[in-house]
């Protein structure tokens, strides 16, 4: 594959943008990332004309793939040509809010913002304002965007900001616990219960290899929050309108968070975030409440049109059946391939998410294992070895994944997530042929 033009563009980018990119993960590919030129259904064409089967899908927003159906495209164009924005409320925001409130079990009211980061920043401020408490329990290794309140590393006893430029006081008020570890969450509440404003958790760790919750974990967090007067915030920036379809992961798992953060799919490929939940809590945002929240671009008409029409299209067509079926084919195909080529590795994912985690240990006998991706079944022979926490995923063979496997897949025309930790996404634009080609590439590259 020739990458001459991408190389030249990266050279220029390095002179004018830090690390040559506008979001860090894009530079994870070495020696430099291919520059995207255009999309085509489930494929991506780079600046040198190379074509890939694209499982990154913009890091999640592109549920329908790179081609927007006519109805979605028409609404985007209509709203872009009418304004494109006003600094005044518009009908399309109301319609989108009504759609989300109709489909997502815990959402009565919603505030749209411009990114998942803005959503988690606003949600943590809201939880602190609503409860008049300071501390937020977060999961070790989880990602909630560039949010000073959640960029923390360490544990209950000792913790510090995970980035330069964040005052230590933020980490004092963020308590990291391992995902899936009920004991650690209980301990956090024993030590700080009356100052815990919220537990902030993804339903599935989707930025750290894809880690499914163990049985009863979310129920336990729900109970802990209820018993201690803390809010349960679910970060559904990735899982929202992907896992569980239109009812989101909360509908699938049967848990009602107090507050939910959204992003990605609800903007149909345009910059978006949102904070939804019970009216009593969400109405604490200004101007109806005292928790300040505002934004010039919030509820942008083009974004609202793209997001709402994408979701309407999904509601009226076989979108979720298609993406979930193809992802299931990928996961079961990968399970078969791993049994022969790399039996310690774990297939992870659910709905339209998939990933192979290069776990170092596995059982000798694989009979009866989860075939459609790790579901943390205690009867699965992999149960003791499959990742339960972010640290378990970080302990996998990440160098092999990055240095050997990723480039080998790219050479075969399959574009996987930029590092071992991010999810991979199936879209409505993908086909069975894409799945077959991808499985053949995995078989060769592993
Ligand atoms: C779970 C989760 N929360 C929040 C964010 C931040 O969203 P954004 O990149 O739109 O700021 C991300 C981004 O990937 C995410 O995966």
List the helices and strands and how they pair.
Blueprint: H1 4-16, E1 36-40, E2 43-46, E3 51-54, H2 70-82, H3 91-103, E4 109-113, H4 116-131, E5 135-139, E6 152-154, E7 159-161, H5 168-172, E8 174-177, H6 182-192, E9 196-201, H7 217-228, E10 231-235, H8 248-253, E11 259-263, E12 273-277, H9 279-282, H10 301-316, H11 319-341, E13 346-348, E14 353-357, H12 390-394, H13 398-411, E15 414-415, E16 424-425, H14 432-445
Parallel strand pairs: 3-15, 5-8, 5-9, 9-10, 10-11
Antiparallel strand pairs: 1-2, 2-3, 4-12, 6-7, 11-12, 13-14, 14-16
Helix pairs in contact: 2-10, 3-10, 6-7, 11-14, 13-14
Residues 59, 115-117, 120, 143-145, 202, 206-207, 235, 237-238, 263, 273 line the site of pyridoxal-5'-phosphate (PLP).
């Amino acid at each position: 594959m020739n990458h001459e033009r991408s190389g030249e563009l990266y050279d220029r980018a390095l002179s004018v943008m830090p690390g040559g990119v506008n979001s860090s993960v894009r530079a994870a590919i070495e020696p430099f990332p291919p520059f995207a030129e255009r999309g085509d259904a489930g494929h991506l064409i780079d600046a040198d004309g190379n074509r890939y089967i694209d499982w990154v899908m913009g890091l999640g927003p592109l549920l329908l793939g790179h081609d927007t159906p006519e109805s979605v495209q028409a609404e985007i164009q209509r709203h872009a040509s009418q304004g494109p924005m006003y600094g005044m409320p518009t009908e399309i925001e109301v319609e989108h809010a009504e759609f989300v409130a109709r489909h997502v079990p815990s959402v009565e009211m919603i505030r749209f913002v411009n990114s998942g980061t803005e959503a988690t920043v606003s949600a943590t401020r809201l939880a602190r304002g609503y409860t008049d408490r300071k501390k937020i329990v977060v999961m070790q290794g989880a990602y909630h965007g560039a949010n000073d309140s959640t960029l923390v590393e360490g544990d209950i006893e000792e913790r510090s900001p995970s980035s330069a430029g964040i005052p230590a006081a933020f980490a004092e008020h963020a308590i990291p616990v391992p995902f899936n570890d009920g004991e650690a969450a209980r301990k956090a509440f024993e030590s700080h219960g009356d100052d815990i404003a919220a537990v902030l958790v993804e339903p599935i760790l989707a930025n750290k290899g894809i880690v499914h919750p163990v049985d009863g974990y979310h129920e336990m967090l729900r109970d802990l929050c209820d018993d201690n007067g803390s809010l349960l915030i679910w970060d559904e920036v990735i899982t929202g309108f992907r896992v569980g379809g239109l009812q989101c992961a909360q509908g699938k798992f049967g848990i009602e968070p107090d507050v939910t953060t959204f992003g990605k799919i609800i903007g149909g490929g345009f910059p978006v975030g949102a904070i939804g939940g019970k009216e009593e809590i969400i109405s604490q945002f200004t101007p109806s409440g005292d928790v300040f929240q505002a934004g010039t671009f919030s509820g942008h008409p083009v974004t609202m049109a793209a997001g709402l029409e994408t979701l309407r299209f999904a509601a009226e067509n076989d979108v979720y059946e298609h993406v979930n079926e193809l992802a299931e084919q990928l996961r079961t195909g990968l399970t078969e391939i791993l049994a022969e080529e790399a039996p310690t590795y774990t297939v992870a994912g659910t709905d339209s998410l998939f990933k192979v985690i290069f776990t170092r240990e596995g059982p000798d006998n694989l009979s009866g294992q989860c075939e459609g991706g790790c579901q943390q079944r205690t009867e699965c022979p992999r149960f003791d070895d499959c990742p339960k926490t972010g640290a378990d995923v970080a302990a996998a063979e990440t160098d092999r994944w990055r240095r050997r496997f990723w480039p080998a897949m790219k050479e075969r025309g399959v574009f996987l997530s930029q590092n071992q930790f991010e999810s991979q996404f199936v879209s409505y634009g993908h086909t069975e042929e894409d799945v077959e080609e991808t499985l053949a590439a995995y078989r060769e590259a592993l």
